[in-house]
Amino acid sequence: MGHPWIPPQLGYKAEAAIVNYYSLDSSIGGHTDHSEKNHDAPLISVSFGQTAIFLLGGIEKNVVPTPMFIHSGDIVIMSGPTRLCYHAVPKIIPNAEFAVDGRWSTIMSKMRLNLNVRQVNL
Ligand SMILES: O=C(O)CCC(=O)C(=O)O
Ligand SMILES: [Fe+2]
């Protein structure tokens, strides 16, 4: 299947996915994702549920990070110059306006799920 927002010449292969579960008091510290063999292949993530504060730093740890919100349904692509940048999720912010159908609303009101898709091979 093609990915309309990824240039086909990149030959991106979605080979693995990490599901990150965040309760309302979860966080993930500053890190880079460098275990994959091909650092030209972007990291693509889709988020569901409660809002996250996302910090995007630089290639070096001493770069002051840019804070941004990631809301439910947002897609973050770390590619090109940002592929190996430091990043973190220091805080989950409950979103009072969050609503999805029925039982999902109750379940997702207490968590954030982040599906992080990766190409791991060359
Ligand atoms: O939860 C997120 O938005 C980021 C997760 C992440 O950085 C990772 O799985 O490496
Ligand atoms: Fe990461």
UniProtKB/TrEMBL annotation:
<dbReference type="InterPro" id="IPR027450">
    <property type="entry name" value="AlkB-like"/>
</dbReference>
<keyword id="KW-0479">Metal-binding</keyword>
<protein>
    <recommendedName>
        <fullName>Fe2OG dioxygenase domain-containing protein</fullName>
    </recommendedName>
</protein>
<dbReference type="InterPro" id="IPR004574">
    <property type="entry name" value="Alkb"/>
</dbReference>
<keyword id="KW-0408">Iron</keyword>
<keyword id="KW-0223">Dioxygenase</keyword>
<feature type="domain" description="Fe2OG dioxygenase">
    <location>
        <begin position="13"/>
        <end position="121"/>
    </location>
</feature>
<dbReference type="InterPro" id="IPR037151">
    <property type="entry name" value="AlkB-like_sf"/>
</dbReference>
<keyword id="KW-0560">Oxidoreductase</keyword>
<dbReference type="Pfam" id="PF13532">
    <property type="entry name" value="2OG-FeII_Oxy_2"/>
</dbReference>
<dbReference type="InterPro" id="IPR005123">
    <property type="entry name" value="Oxoglu/Fe-dep_dioxygenase_dom"/>
</dbReference>
